[in-house]
Each structure stands twice: as structure tokens, then as C-alpha cells.
Amino acid sequence: MAVRVGFIGAGGMNSAHMRNVAQIKAAQIVAVCDINEERANQRASEYGAKAFTSWKQMLKEARLDALYVAVPPFAHEGQEQAAAKLGIHLFVEKPVAMDLKTAKAVNSAIKKAGIIATAGFQDRYQDIVKVMKKLLEKNRPGLIMGYWMGGMPGVSWWRRKDQSGGQAVEQTIHTFDMARYLFGEVKLVHAVYSKGLMVDVPDYTVEDASAVNLQFESGLCGTIFSACFLKGVGNKVGLDIFCPEMKIEYSGRRQLTILTAGKEPEVKQVGNAFGAEIDQTFIKAVQKAKKDPVAAQAMLKSSYTDACNSLAIPLAANESMETGQAVTPFRFQ
Predict the structure, then answer these.
(1) Taking a C-beta distance cutoff of 8 angstroms, is the pair 240, 175 a contact?
(2) Quick check: is 80 in a domain?
(3) What does the alpha-carbon distance between residue 14 and residue 43 come to, in Å, rounded to a whole number?
(4) Of 160, 194, 257, 297, most Cβ neighbours within 10 A?
């Protein structure tokens, strides 16, 4: 029997997930919910699903096995807890919450229900990330520098910190997550920021740029930069990893450049379709969860709890920006 899949949010991210899920024979898209009725109807009609504007009504009527939640950071209002209570397995887009209180409540509900849950950290599934992890087994890094530097997304809520959490939380979280995935937990965070370049943008309350210093439990240190003021030049996303005899340049979602002392640079392009593998793995995990939920959760490269620990880093950075002090990030268990 096909996995019955529903979607809360019919914007760009869930639209991409829908396209991927529609290609999976073991899955059936049965319900789509969005507060924009026209958009909900459009997406639902594309996949022969039922459209909803109320997620509560959808959860009550649709008899779902799995649910994708992709809403703006401020719009997590109990969807995950309600789904967990019904035994519905969860895929929550990043950032999984905008504050620790919400993340703690959802994490607790997931554990209590015994469902499997993952987050939208698709970058972990790239083939070049596997190459990086293997290289780092034999090449200990001494310094990392991470980036999410570009322009400002056009959606109105993104530029308001009370709705997005700011760039570090909403966007650069991909880079923070990759750093945790490669180098382990962070024990100390200190951040600074700059403003003043975006004076012509209405309702703009996020930072133009930030620099977040990280001290990892392993002893490794690094800085991750965010910038949303760039206009067509200077864009950079990824990580630069410095080892004694090697530099690894990870250009997020594009390629890996390996610079080794005494050798020609080696470039590896991303070989797998971005996003498709995480959706395929999630559906397979949902199928397996009926017999072995522990093994099913292990199939996924990020649990909800793990995603919360990636969220805790930029949240600590936001606190540091406000106080000027170094912050120990909260650790989810």
C-alpha cells in the first residue's frame, strides 16, 4: 500500500518536495494545505490531491502516513505536535522552529509518539559531502570558515527578524548544520553584526551581515559569515576547511575543490540531484517504520533532535549579537 503523504505549506520548498514525492511509486500525495486557497487548489490539482486551507481539518480528514511541514519560521503553531499525536511521521523544513520553546515542545511530542522525524537538511545527502567526510578522517582541520553570502530573499517575512529569526537562523543554518555534521558539537558561540546598508527596504529588521565565531568541543575553531546585502557580486555559500597539508573548498550544492600540497587541484562536481535523495530516503524510512522505527530513523541523516541542535547554534549567535557575550548553545537530547 502506498504511503499517504500530506503537505502543510504549498510554497517553493514544499513544491520541490511534491515534485520529488510524485516520482516515488511507493508514495501518494493525498492532501495539500496552504492559507492561500488558490495556491492550495493549484498544487492539489497537479497531484490529484485534496486541497485544504486549515491544517487541523486536513489532519482530521486525510488519514496521513507522512507529513511535510514547510512554513515560515514564525508559523509553527502546533502542526507537528498534532501530527505526532496521530502517529504521522514528519518531515519538517529548516529552520524547524524560530525559538527554543517551540523546538523543545515539538521534540518532546515526537519522542512521546515514537514516530520518525527528519528535517530539510538536503545538503547532507550530497555525494561530495561523503567525499569530504572521508578526507577529514585522515586530515585534521585546524580552522574553518563558512559562508552564506548573497542577496535578500523577496518574501516579506524574511526581512523581519521577529518572523524569520534573521539570516543566520533562516538561511545560514544550512552552513551551521554542515559544520556540525562534519566537525561535531559546538560548545561556545560569539557573534558580531553590522547594519545600515539596507535603509531603502521597508520593514527591514534583520542584520545586513554577521560573523559568528565557533569553538567546537574537539578544539577546532572557525567563523561562519552571513550577508544579505550583496547585489550580484561577491556571493559565496559553503565552507573553506584548512588542514596542515590540504585545503578543502566546499561550494555548497555545486562542487568540491581539493587543494593538496604538491598536487594539482582536484575538482568534484555534485553528482546527485539536489533534494531528491532525502525525499526518497524519507519515504523508504516511513515504510520501514511500521516494523522497525529505530532502524527507520537511522536511515535518515538528520533526526528532528539533531536539527534542533543545529538550530541552537544560530539562536545562540542571535543572543550573542544582543548581549555582546559568548554563549553556550542549548543541547537537545
Answers:
(1) no
(2) yes
(3) 10
(4) 297
Q: Is 136 exposed, middle or buried (0-12, 13-18, 19+ CB in 10 A)?
A: middle
Residue 188 contacts residue 325 (beta carbons within 8 Å)? no
Angle CA(28)–CA(120)–CA(310) in degrees, nearest 5?
Answer: 155
Confidence of residue 273 (pLDDT cuts 50, 70, 90): confident
Domain extent, residue 17, equals 3-121+274-301
Residue 170 one-letter amino acid: E
What does the pLDDT look like over 38-68, one tens digit per residue?
999 999 999 999 999 999 999 999 999 999 9
297/293 Cα distance (integer angstroms): 6
Could you tell me the CATH number of the domain that includes residue 187?
Answer: 3.30.360.10
pLDDT tier for residue 187 given thresholds of 50, 70 and 90 = very high
* 135 & 227 share domain: yes
If asked whether residues 43 and 58 sit together in one domain, one would say: yes
Does the pLDDT at position 216 exceed 90? Answer: yes
| Same domain? 265 vs 202 | yes
